[in-house]
UniProtKB/TrEMBL annotation, chains A, B:
Subcellular location: Cytoplasm
UniProt keyword list: Cytoplasm, Stress response
Similarity section: Belongs to the small heat shock protein (HSP20) family.
Record's protein name: SHSP domain-containing protein
PANTHER family recorded: HEAT-SHOCK PROTEIN 20 FAMILY MEMBER (PTHR11527)
Record bears the keyword Cytoplasm: yes
Length: 98, 98
């Protein structure tokens, strides 16, 4: 699970992608709000602009089982785990007589 | 208008108050989420804890006309302005004959 603060972003402003097999890329952009007619900004401290983070997924991540939910300005990306590979049975190689 | 990022906070976690006639106090607390059974945190960068900011309101602020709305992790506090005071009419003082 990846939990990222994204206050003021709408689902359409957020992008969640998997690239290069195992890199989870979370990006978004907060645009400056449209200035209201006659409004005067006294102070601006909230960051606007693009944000991007990359995370390397573990080997057992299921890249087809990823969900992303945004609530109250917090994005939660959940990556399912692949079931552990079945233990490999001992394999017998026949010995040929030469 | 005061616009404050408050990702992950619910309306009940946020407090908006006016103190000393003209000081707007915005505070909140983000608690650490309850640890899930068996969950292991690999990295934590999101700030948790209390936050508080005070703003001095201008003289023409209507302290009875303040609204606070939280959406997508962004709190917007709107303070209405009082109507400008009516221009004072000239006042005539009768002159008594003494």
């Amino acid at each position: 699970m990846f939990v990222v603060d994204m206050p003021g972003l709408k689902p359409g402003d957020i992008k969640v992608q998997v690239e290069e097999e195992n890199v989870l890329l979370i990006s978004g952009e907060r645009k400056r709000e449209e200035e209201k007619e006659g409004a005067k900004y006294i102070r601006m401290e909230r960051r606007v602009g693009k944000l991007m983070r990359k995370f390397v997924l573990p080997e057992n991540a299921n890249r087809d089982g990823i969900t992303a939910v945004c609530k109250d300005g917090v994005l939660t990306v959940t990556v399912e785990k692949l079931p552990p590979p079945e233990p490999k049975k001992p394999k017998t190689i026949e010995v040929e007589i030469c």
